[in-house]
Design a protein that fits this description.
about 240 residues; alpha/beta; Rossmann fold; five-stranded parallel sheet; 11 helices; about 40% helix
Length: about 240
Amino acid sequence: MTDSVRLAMWSGPRNISTALMRSWENRPDTRVVDEPLYAYYLEQTGLNHPAREEVIAAGEPSWERVVVELTAPGDGVYYQKHMTHHLIPQLPRDWIPQLTNVLLIRDPAEVVASYVRSRADVVAEDIGLVQQTELYDQLGPSTPVIDAADFLGAPESYLRWLCSYVGVEFLPAMLSWPPGPRDSDGVWAPHWYDAVIASTSFEPYRPREISLEGAALEAAERSRPHYERLHAVRVVL
């Protein structure tokens, strides 16, 4: 076992990343951070996301300060929920290997169908799979990839695997949590987190009938090869 773990979970939006943050936050030895690069991303890109000004005001727009905090030594487990679309080209990535990194993927059609319910405009780079393959290439083939559908089919097995991978004991408390918001949630939670705020555990995976068109369909189709590449090397238990 190790005394200090900085676990960076790199996901796209509309995945189970917030539920996983709940799971790890339910451990007594773990602190969490919710999308620490979001303010920097919005300020740099000028994109119009829900609660844009509130996110920038509440967050840290300096990537250098964010990285110092993310990589600082500390005790216990530091669970970092990251969005890979925040890795814009001008953001250096040489600090990322200092963390224990895991990629969390989800079928892009499912991601896009969920994403456009909160933000109508979408391109492939918004859902993060393009950047996930870049990150996988940077970090190397030993980087674990977990598919959300697999995880939801066997959450205890995958949590046990994750705990073993980072060198901490699995705790049954990771499988359920009290409903409601958390102080650790980003200020964007009212726009994106309705389901997880009401949740008390991981919901079983349910295939969905999805119909996309226009820009949404193009975003999903452009993301598909990146998803299939990572899906082929995912952790299978």
